[in-house]
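Worked example 2:
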Amino acid sequence: MHDTTVANHRNLADDILWGVDGPNGIAAFLGISARRCYYLIESGAIPVNKLGHRTIVGSRSELRRLFGRAAAGRST
């Protein structure tokens, strides 16, 4: 695999948030409770995709774009 391709895959993997709960979940990234996060997902305010039984969000960068400064400072 070309070095650039490997770097792009690594960057994409670092950008994806898996799940709502947990230290690397969507709720922790946004600094909100899991309950609030599930509500925002159900109401369509947070764009997510389902992959089997797991919920993934498009990317940290997408959340930063949607929620602005509130998420911009968080890097977890």
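Residues 3-15 form the longest helix (13 residues). The chain has a mean pLDDT of 79.
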